[in-house]
Amino acid sequence: MTIGVLALQGAFREHVAMLRRLGVEAVEVRLPPQLDGLDGLVIPGGESTAMLRLMGLYGLDEAIRAFPAPLFGTCAGMIVLDRERLGLIDLVVERNAFGRQVASFEAPIGIEGDDEPFPGVFIRAPWVADAGPGVAILAEIDGHPVLAREGRVLVASFHPELTDDTRVHERFLQIVREEQGVRT
Ligand code: GLN
Predict the structure, then answer these.
(1) From the CA of 81, how far away is ligand 1's center (Å)?
(2) Known active-site residue 112
């Protein structure tokens, strides 16, 4: 299994490290041809405006729209995938709205199907303003979705790659395995 991590900007190294820790081949993606043959793609946190600008410059916006395999967006990566940007998940995300009072914080997250809470690291996190009916909400904080899945697309408003807890990445790899099963 080979997973790409969009490496234009932001916390891509941490995702690569975590994927390698899970025994997966992880490659940095900076140009559209590097998407060929990947089993999944991670879009990391960072600054969504900068990331979108660079994606447009390199043609990665169109290439990612055409990418057929699972996608996992964290924080700015979640913003990039929403209905109003790449349009790959039926969510409307409001930037920087989560921490209007405290810009960044840590909070335990109860994730559907997991017994132990997940250590949520939120850094100027996006706020899910609207989720379409096809989107499964896997975790919430104070009634606000923070982990969601629609088909082959998983998004988190927090940063699992900045913790030692591999469970959200393992969840993504499970989606990748399911899709591989569907496609072969
Ligand atoms: N606030 C950033 C944005 O709007 C996201 C922050 C993050 O990825 N940690 O893109």
Answers:
(1) 13
(2) no
pLDDT in tens, 100-119: 556 889 999 999 999 999 99
Going by C-alpha positions, the residue among 55, 48, 111 that lies closest to residue 82 is 48
Question: Per the residue annotation, which of 15, 150, 159, 169 is the catalytic one?
Answer: 159
Give the integer Cα–Cα distance in Å for 41 and 63: 12
- Return d(Cα 131, Cα 106) in angstroms, integer: 24
Can you list the domains of the chain with their CATH numbers?
2-183 (3.40.50.880)
Give the pair of three-digit tokens for residue 26.
């992880």
CA dihedral 46, 50, 54, 57 (to 10 degrees): 160
Model-wide pTM > 0.85 = yes
Whether 144 sits among the annotated catalytic residues: the reply is: no
For a mutational test of ligand 1's pocket, the pick from 47, 78, 93, i.e. the residue with the most ligand atoms closer than 8 A to its C-beta, is: 47
